[in-house]
Amino acid sequence: MPPSTPRVALLVTCLVDTMRPSVGFAAVRLLEQAGCTVHVPVQTCCGQPNYNSGDRDGARALARRMIEAMAGFDFVVAPSGSCAATVIKDYPQMFAGDPEWEAPARDLAGRTHEIVSFLTDVMEIDAVGARVPARATYHDSCSGLRSLGIKDQPRKLLASVEGLTLAEMAEPEICCGFGGTFCVKYPDISNKMVSNKTADIAATGAELLLAGDLGCLMNMAGKLSREGKPVKARHVVEVLAGDTDTPAIGEGGK
Amino acid sequence: MSAHAPTTPRFKQNAREALANKNIQAAMGNAQAGFVAKRAAARAALPEFDDIRDAARDLKNHVLANLDAYLERYEAKVTAAGGHVHWAETAEDAQRIVLDICREAGAKTVNKGKSMISEECGINDFLEEHGVRAQETDLGEYIIQLRHEMPSHIIAPAVHVTVPEVEAEFRKAHTHLDPGRNLAELPSLLAEARGVLREKYFGAEVGITGANMLIAETGQSVIVTNEGNGDLSQSLPRVHIVMASIEKIVPTLEDASTVLRVLARSATGQEITVYTTFSSGPRRPEDPDGPEEYHVVLLDNGRTGMLGTEFQEMLRCIRCGACMNHCPVYQSVGGHAYGWVYPGPMGAVLTPSLIGVEKGGQLPNASTFCGRCESVCPMRIPLPKMMRHWREREFEKNLTPSAARWGLAAWRFLGTRAWAYRLVTAASARALALAAMGKGRLARLPMGGGWTAHRDFPAPQGRTFQSQWRGER
Questions:
Q1: Distance from A196 to chain B by nearest Cα, in Å?
Q2: What is the pTM of this model?
Q3: Any idea what DSSP says for residue B361?
Q4: Does one domain contain both A143 and A234?
Q5: Nearest to A223 by CA among A181, A170, A166, A177
Q6: Where among B257, B275, B304 does a domain terminate?
């Protein structure tokens, strides 16, 4: 059982920090509604870009800073299955056999969660108070789905959003073609993959695309707008927090 | 096409061409859904499927930890049964061994069951160069032999070919048949291939097959097929050559059945293939038929070099093809783009091991790490993790492109200095937001052409989360 008012550090992720801070504020709202005290330690990046590019030293350097920044909190929560999976699954491997850092890495991995699964599985939330009248579809981002087993949790909370109906894609679990640096290293293949994905999205008739990772969302939203498909894209926590005033991803205004 | 001239370093170019090839795109689109749905149904019908995967993984780990002992036990059994085991350290050794056996047998024609090891060794071209005709008898292999291509898939070698292309190829090759015949339907193509190939079975002095497994306790080799061509290839000619790589060993018949229970289900969604054939050596006096000579060519070709490294687990692979059937990259570009014998995720790990990371390094980079391959692998091989290990090797050997190295070094610099990270992210977010001019997205991005060639770039909102949280201006 969690402490009655757990001290939670928000691992905001460098993408949300830089590109879409409103996702961070939505995350804070949801965590506070769930009874957490939210802190935002000074932080940078978890190191995944370096780790997945083969730069182990660089990745460890960034990971050490993250481990230090997140020390002492009951939980560390990220609005991203991908970044959370890096901390949870990769950090212990990155520092395996390191006398100084293996224990703190394992400790952090044990306290870290992706936000939606944290709300449902740790804080035992089964409903949110939001009202978002829309036909939505949900893309299962790969790391969250296959590394952390996040599948039912977002659907459970989305079912509690008043006015929202979920129209599933034929293949919600297939990669959208983002893959971090993959999309710029192999743009043609990435384009083929995201085109398959936007066709699948369009076939649902949904007006709103949701997912738990901003990288995938920016990829899909950028393709949807290039193709002129009238589908708005939002991070799932925006909808769960009831934030539909902020322009959708890639949308102007305000 | 020689198996020894990999086009793997041209992967990007290959991929671009494949994406623009309408036939490949049509063929790949048709094939994928079938494989995925059939595997899923087979798995659902066997509740203990995932437990059998664990058992199969454990047994193969045990084999790899004791490979030398099992190989020696296997060799002793084969020898005792009157067969011959030949050890081939390299593909060239295997070529020479096979040619010597063919010459000894006075062979002009060799019939072949499907064998990826023979592809790895480039046996067909090598034999042809030395006056021995190698005739493929597997339908898919026969089609690509007519087209002078390599397999594009390890179990469905002609998966990239459309039905009208097969018809055109048959009309070109089978000129002795009535030009007015109807070949529009799949069954008529199958019947024609069967008729043409049947005649060829009796003309070969030597038959070559692969092996899905080698059983140490019995000295048997096992092949699984759906067409029966493997049985005819190995039992009709006077000499049977099995080409197998050393990691195909399993200790016992019982272990072989464990692997068989996951193999076909993962590959084609079948509970078991139409034929599962155990070969125990040359014909014994009381046997009504079978080859007079039985040879096993055991290929290493770099595999022992993988033992004890972070790539050892790759040697658990049983060549079912599930990883490529579920890979969105493979499904987009097809197998030929990978440029050598083994495509898809298993190829992305194995190819650099066998031809060197200098030539094969593109493949482990061409992955989003979506993890679908690992999730369906019957042997639970951590394919994305091993692709990342190849990227680490590249980085350590300075093979990573310099732009990427600079980017990573810059990111490390920023990420380990919060003040620098804060300055740069705040300035970038502000600049890109301004550049979007209220539209919320950018159609072009400096140095981001790979992104904006195909999609818009959603602009940042303007101020970073951390600066807003801390109330900075």
A1: 10
A2: 0.96
A3: T
A4: yes
A5: A177
A6: B304
